[in-house]
Design a protein that fits this description.
By secondary structure, the protein is mainly α. The protein contains twelve helices and no strands. The protein has one domain: Ribonucleotide Reductase, subunit A, CATH 1.10.620. Helix 3 packs antiparallel against helix 5, helix 5 packs antiparallel against helix 8 and helix 7 crosses helix 11.
Length: about 300
Amino acid sequence: MTSPDALLAELEPTAAQLLDRHLATSKEWFPHELVPWSQGRDFEAGYEWSPEEVELSDEVRSALFVNLLTEDNLPYYFRTIERMFGADSAWGTWARRWTAEEGRHSIVIRDYLTVTRAIDPVQLERARMAQVECGEVPEPETPLDGFAYVALQELATRIAHHNTGKLLEDKAGYDVMRKVASDENRHYLFYRDLVTAALEVDPSGAVLAIERQVRTFEMPGTGILDFEVHAKAIAKAGIYDFAVHHDQILVPVVLRHWAIESLEGLSPEADAARAALVKRIARIGKAGQRFAARRDESRERELATA
């Protein structure tokens, strides 16, 4: 197994190449150009928000709430990433660029929600204060764990943003979420390909890290007030659930792109972890199918009684 310092040193040229690719494929964009400012008006003294202001399902509101508060927790994600990778060379440059882009996401989503009044601004601000004061984020123990975790999270976040946007019956809202999702996709590609390189440098260590992160993975947003309630609502809407996690993350990334099942030369411990990982992915897939079936049955009953 390669030591963390040696691993980061060996992967630094790869990180530099991936950073250059990211910068070359990124297009400058501005939050103020996406927000429908003409819909805005002053918040009068004593204003009390009502869900009737914007026709939106509770599930979509939960998704917007969680998506934004996850972005708001950026300072602590940055702290964790800089601690794992360091502040120098391509690692530090990437962490700072990533932070600048993620900060832009919270700006544009909050401006959109404030202008359209889609979410209670008082509840949202209180939740932001609680989230940032709490400062809860996953703390992977090693760089390998960090690479694997952030690859999975960035893809999960991209999917959640994109699926939320599709459920907004508002072109401006869809454009906001699509733009944010496109950034998240480039972030995911950086970390996905970093894990691919790590699998060549330290295959056993990388497999152990991937298995740990899949086993302990939670939907982005952990630490948010009433997170479990919102997560259930998000799953009910099909924005992000076990089926999405299995079909759009675990299978295409872990099994296909990283080709976990075909790796050779693993240590006995890593080989056992791989076997457990493959079984876990299969169980998640079955759980996703069961959940989706129950959700479809519930929707059919709701339509029948409507």
